[in-house]
């Protein structure tokens, strides 16, 4: 792929003070690497936290880990994808060899690298999706996107939707179960739709009534209190988690997915956990199977839920700084079309 070495890709580099557009050289591809032309990237809440200083991250770096794109070049042989395929890709890139990978926990690989989280001045400059191109190293999990799934629907699969699939797996069977979802952002609303499709009775709570209103279109109803069987927390609020834990019925399950920053400690009564047969577990990122499940879920429910309606129309790359903020009212994701 030496012919690609002199190509330049317009790239938005986060400098800590703002976004700087640079023309970045596209490197020669190693065996198994993919060069992908980014069609659309959505703005995840974690990137907003980086920009506002709530989350530490490599700097400078190319942010963005929710995206959909088209394969432009393949390094060596690849049995997984071909040039021209429209794909989404995993946030994490695992070594596949360490104990964690061998145990099926590739998201926690001892040598994990992450799309949109790597230092720009390292050996993977084109590592984020806020750019015309991204290089996906060999071993990155990718999934082809059906033609029936629009870019705005597919892009969140790479983070929000796949994480929800992992969260539901941790929760166990949901048919006829009473589910309380804490947090009505993109993950919470997606979880409401997934739980509803699984046959659960879904309640959703958020500090902002307007976000709960959005969730009504995705199978959730406002929370009216009472006992529940499953609590899925995407809020990261210790208060919300404690309240949800107290409401769990016998055999209840609490899945924590939103606590990704330091916060107050949570008081847990061990006797209550034992006597009520409770399960408390956590989910952070996801496995390759969850990315496939995410794309399948979005394809299956495209005519049921208005996925595209919660993603704002894309801006161009040079306008990225304008959407690195809270999405417009009624929207759960802003987007950029590099």
From TrEMBL:
Keyword Zinc in annotation: yes
SUPFAM superfamilies associated with the record: GroES-like, NAD(P)-binding Rossmann-fold domains
NCBIfam families with a match to the protein in the record: HpnZ_proposed
Presence of keyword Oxidoreductase: yes
Domain spans labelled Alcohol dehydrogenase-like C-terminal: 195-299
PANTHER family noted in UniProt: L-THREONINE 3-DEHYDROGENASE (PTHR43401)
Domain Alcohol dehydrogenase-like N-terminal: 31-147
Full protein name: Zinc-binding dehydrogenase
Family: Belongs to the zinc-containing alcohol dehydrogenase family.
Named cofactor requirement(s): Zn(2+)
Organism in which the protein naturally occurs: Rhodococcus gannanensis
Keyword entries, A-Z: Metal-binding, Oxidoreductase, Zinc
């Amino acid at each position: 792929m030496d012919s690609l070495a002199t190509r330049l890709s317009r790239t938005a580099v986060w400098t800590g003070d703002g976004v700087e557009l640079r023309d970045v050289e596209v490197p020669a591809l190693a065996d198994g690497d993919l060069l992908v032309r980014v069609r659309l990237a959505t703005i995840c809440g974690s990137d907003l936290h980086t920009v506002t200083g709530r989350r530490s991250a490599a700097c400078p770096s190319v942010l963005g880990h929710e995206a959909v794109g088209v394969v432009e070049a393949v390094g060596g042989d690849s049995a997984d994808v071909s040039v021209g395929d429209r794909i989404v890709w995993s946030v994490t890139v695992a070594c596949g060899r360490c104990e964690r990978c061998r145990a099926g926990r590739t998201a926690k690989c001892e040598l994990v690298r992450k799309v949109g989280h790597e230092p720009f001045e390292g050996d993977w400059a084109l590592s984020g999706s806020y750019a015309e191109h991204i290089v996906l190293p060999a071993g990155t999990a990718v999934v082809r996107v059906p033609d029936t799934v629009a870019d705005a629907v597919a892009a969140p699969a790479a983070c929000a939707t796949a994480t929800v699939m992992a969260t539901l797996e941790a929760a166990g069977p949901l048919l006829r179960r009473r589910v309380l979802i804490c947090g009505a952002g993109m993950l919470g609303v997606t979880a409401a739709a997934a739980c509803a499709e699984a046959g659960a009775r879904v309640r959703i709570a958020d500090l902002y009534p307007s976000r709960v209103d959005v969730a009504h279109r995705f199978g959730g109803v406002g929370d009216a209190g009472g006992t529940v069987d499953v609590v899925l927390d995407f809020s990261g609020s210790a208060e919300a988690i404690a309240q949800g834990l107290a409401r769990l019925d016998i055999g209840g399950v609490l899945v924590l997915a939103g606590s990704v920053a330091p916060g107050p400690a949570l008081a847990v009564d061990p006797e209550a956990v034992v006597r009520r047969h409770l399960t408390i577990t956590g989910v952070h990122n996801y496995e390759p199977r969850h990315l496939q499940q995410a794309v399948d879920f979005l394809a299956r429910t495209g005519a049921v839920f208005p996925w595209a309606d919660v993603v704002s129309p894309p801006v161009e790359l040079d306008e990225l700084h304008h959407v690195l903020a809270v999405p417009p009212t009624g929207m759960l994701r802003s987007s950029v079309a590099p």
